[in-house]
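Reading a protein record of the kind used here takes only a little practice. Each token is a code from a learned vocabulary of local backbone shapes. With that in mind, consider the following protein and its fold in token form:
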Amino acid sequence: MTETVGIDRMGFYTPDMYLEMTDLALARGEDPAKYHVGIGQDKQAVIPPTQDVVTMAANAAAQILTPADKAAVKMVLFGTESGIDNSKATAVYLAHLLDLPADTRAVEIKQACYGATAGLQLAADYVRARPTAKVLVIGADIARYGLHTAGEVTQGGGAVAMLVTAQPRMLALEPVSAYHTADVMDFWRPLGRTEALVDGRYSTNVYLDFFKTVWTAYQAQTQRTIADFAALTFHIPFTKMGLKALRQVLPEATPDQQVRLQAAFEASQLDNRNVGNLYTGSLYLSILSLLRHGHLQAGDRIGCYSYGSGAEGEFYSAIVQPTFRQGFDDERLTALLANRHAVSVAEYEALFTQRLDLSGRDVQLPIGEVSAQYYLAGRHQQQRLYRQRAVD
């Protein structure tokens, strides 16, 4: 008998500061409706210098890993395009911070926003072959385009952690998926740059074209139609982008099915609207938001569209499990987002420039008011100094 494999638990972390999009719009001389409606964003996570992708991943993973889980984890796959070293993997730093066993394989995966999906599929195949093993998959990023740029409104950051196991509590991954790759220059970040370069309109068009390509290929492989799905979820660097993709296929559904799919999309984008762009984690925050705010039932099938500029796209599906609400701490996640505090545009701009630069110089970061369990204390002799705060 083939084991059911999928996402057993999910954790999410973003720092405790955000910027109101109305404030940013007014500061940039824009109509707030352009940001709230035209882009589909309300708040944007602001990342302090004491957080990077490693610490955010550790703070997310700590929410879901028990001592027994740590003993069973055999692999850490860390999807990110905000890596901190051109050689050493973020996954190695993370495994150390989480005190995982020494016989854990730890690897970083990079392909723009697609990296976490590659990790998830590799993890699923690994567990299908080794049903007693568990794999920790991370999608963590800090989206940076620069101050006063066209992409500034689509910044943000955070981390999603997923524990992939046999007999999962949340989502069973179906084995068939469709993927597509092409060498496209819609978004890239050359070596030596901390901000990305993007052709926004072109990138949106490529994203939409790739979705139709993999959706059609998935249907051809499975003979399924849109009627087989309770929800479609999307990589959403900004929420309007996912809505555009959904609207491409809604005509394939009946009027009643369209209403259900639109309602599910609204639930899936609620948390993303208030965090912003997570790059590799965006699809997975969308899935988590759907499970938290939607009206799903056991046995429902959800479709998942992953996209990474440059470019790679994939469409796969998952089945909601009867115990899916046991896989995340809804109260904790609600409090995480609700208890953040707003910063002014001036404070946001100052924090944006305070991150560790590329000079390699020694830095001691201000850690007096750090509230996160895992944080970055600074840099010494070109080595990052990670610390863990005592937890009651």
Remarks:
- The chain has 13 helices and 17 strands.
- The two ends are 44 Å apart (CA to CA).
- The first helix runs from residue 21 to 27.
